[in-house]
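Sharing in case it's useful to others searching the archive later.

Someone asked me privately for the predicted structure of Probable quinone oxidoreductase, so I'm posting the question and my answer publicly. Question first, with the sequence:
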Amino acid sequence: MVKAFRVHEHGGPEVLRWEEVEIEEPGQGEIRMRNTAIGVNFLDVYMRKGVYPTPLPFTPGTRTSTAKTITVRNQFDQTAHLTRVVLCCSAGVESVGVVTAVGPEVTGIVVGDVVGLAGSPMVTGRTYAEEQIIPAAVAIPIPDWMDHKVAASVLVKGITARILVRQAFKVEAGQTVLVHAAAGGVGSLVCQWASALGATVIGAVSSRAKAEQAAANGCHHVVVYTEEEEDFVARVRDGITAGCGVDVVYDAVGKDTSRGSIACLANRGCLVAFGEASGAPEPFVLGELQPRSLSVTCPALPGYTGTREALLESAAEVFAGLASGVLRAHVGGVYPLAEAPRAHADLEGRRTSGSIVLVPGE
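And my answer, the predicted structure tokens:
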């Protein structure tokens, strides 16, 4: 038996229950790993709250597929329902640990290896637990020089950042980018990466305290968009860019910022929407994008890391960025695994910056 968090009903952080669960021996093509550090992501919160329907009970980190329908309207007021498959837990699975057992037909991995898990669509493990079983095909070898907490803080977030700046919208020197939540786990890495690529980076944050962290992440300009501070649209479009707008907006906030993000775009600009921290964006008229030839994309890890080759290539580029100093991990909080509810409350309350990590046994 091992200890793990289980969710028996959707709700606030208090529905996370610390329980004993059974763990099996690894089957064919599987490994068992003892978690040493676990990354916390907003998708874990979405699952706990029931934003992405998940059969109950479940352990955060357990893969579940569901479909989500997004409604948009065109300029003729015709409604379209776009259904996408959401792997509820795939982007929320992030952990590092030591291999304790290897199942039949597993090659290249032995007991004692340090491996990581980074939001694979094939995963069936449970990260909010002392130990878990995962397919060997999704295990990422962790370099010897990397601290386990740092690795757990950048696997999903670093690979996501790579997708955002290198694939979903390829950032180039001379471009101007706007990054929401610029002091957060993914936002910090996006700012660093885009700045290293030669872009002018505008970071938007929710407090003056986070503005300093955003500047340290490579932001050339920082906007504080709390209601008592600044109107980020006016500051970005009319002020910083002198009416020109930005080439791309990376938006993980959702409802509170999506309209403003579109308003900030330059002609042929792109909104990269990859999160809904404030809720799902309201439906919009597709014709609104046409006058300025704008585009919107919604990238997710499964679409870019669906093969082992793609997963390892993404991880290798993140590790290389950390080794060279282009990327700098910011572990903003370390919590004992048993205090995961407190970590969730702090994350939702915007009381964290950078990445937060859970550590079993502390």
